[in-house]
Amino acid sequence: MSESALSLVTRLTYTLPGSVLAIDKRGHITAANDSWKAYGIAAGLSAGFEWMGIDYFELMRELILPPDYMTELIQALQSIFLGERLVFSGRFPKPPFLRGGKWFQIEAFPIPEETNGATSFVLLSHRHVPSVTDSLPSKPPVKSPYRKPLPFLPICASCKSVRKGGHWVPVERFLQQELHVELTHDICPACITQLYPQYAGALNWLAE
Predict the structure, then answer these.
(1) Whether pLDDT at 201 is above 70
(2) What is the CATH number of the domain that holds 58?
(3) What percent of the chain has pLDDT over 70?
(4) Residue 81 lies in a domain
(5) How confident is the model at residue 9, as a pLDDT?
(6) pTM for this one?
(7) Cα separation, 51 vs 58, whole angstroms
(8) One-letter-per-residue 3-state SS of the chain
(9) Which of 26, 31, 78, 131 could make an SS bond with 22 (beta carbons 3.0 to 4.6 A apart)?
(10) Is 185 part of any domain?
């Protein structure tokens, strides 16, 4: 285990926004900030609960996420450890014991070793989503395969919703309904810099 990678993980755990923790390749928690520990207290764990070494995936499976969402989370984090993706950002349903809205955001990015660049740890930030108007994606309706192509596609210049009939539909739901595809969520390098400057700074630090 690289001491520099471990020290960076510990430092970032207490400086990044949200309820932050770090996991190793086995999924074991190696660091957790006070905000994350408050999650545990809300879930019924004691204030003195020892977080180090706890299986993050097992914890999320038992207390937080339904099975379908656990599959998405596990696959996303495994792909980060394998170097197949740089970051992950996903929206998940909030469990009943947590106050606020119905959803929270999980954002993850890797901390690689200086010597060989392999990912030793993944940092995860869990943040409340203050306002979400969309419900769970509905199953696409069964339609005839013979459809007239759309010559023009009205799309909102601000929120990017697509007008379908007399309604405005979020673009992701529109794609799911029209193309019958499942969408994965990743973030391009330009958006990382713009939306998550604290993550981009950490990755730049590692590249130097």
Answers:
(1) no
(2) 3.30.450.20
(3) 72
(4) yes
(5) 85
(6) 0.63
(7) 13
(8) CCHHHHHHHHHHHCCCCCEEEEEECCCEEEEECHHHHHHHHHCCCCCCCCCCCCEHHHHHHHHCCCHHHHHHHHHHHHHHHCCCCCCEEEEEECCCCCCCCCEEEEEEEEEECCCCCCEEEEEEEEEECCCCCCCCCCCCCCCCCCCCCCCCCCECCCCCCEEECCEEECHHHHHHHHHCCCCCCCCCHHHHHHHCHHHHHHHHHHHC
(9) 31
(10) no
The model's pLDDT over 127-185, given as tens digits with 9 standing for 90+, comes to: 887 654 444 454 454 554 445 555 567 888 777 788 877 788 887 777 777 776 666 66
Token duo for residue 186: 């990743």
Predicted local distance difference test score (pLDDT) of residue 134: 45
Contact 112, 120 (CB under 8 A): yes
Domain total of the chain: 1
